[in-house]
Amino acid sequence: MFKEPEKGDKDVNIERTEQALETQPEIIAAACPFCNTMMTDGIKNKEKEAVIQVMDVAELIANAEDL
């Protein structure tokens, strides 16, 4: 989780965030802490944290009545 990016055109979290953003989500759900961190960092990089939430699947289920 805390290693330098490997060689390539862009970091994997940015690539995955861009793919997720293509669907125009309001919420991105992740099932593991590593993926949650990657997506949260990607959303911050794209300056979308004010309009898109990144949530753990368990958190999403727990808050289902509130959404």
Describe this structure in words.
The chain has helices spanning 12-21, 33-45, 57-62; strands spanning 27-30, 53-56. With 67 residues, the chain is of the alpha+beta class. It has one domain (13-62). It has a two-stranded parallel ribbon with strand order 1-2. Helix 1 crosses helix 2. The longest helix is centred in the middle third of the chain and has 13 residues, at 33-45. The protein is globular, with a radius of gyration of 13 Å. The model has no long low-confidence stretch (mean pLDDT 89).
Average pLDDT across residues?
89
Low-confidence stretches: none
The proportion of residues in beta strands is: 5-15%
Rg over alpha carbons = 13 Å
Distance between the termini: 30 Å
* Strand order of the biggest β-sheet: 1-2
Could you say how many structural domains there are in total? 1
How many helices? The count is: 3
Estimate the global geometry from the Cα principal axes: globular
Structural class, from helix and strand content?
alpha+beta
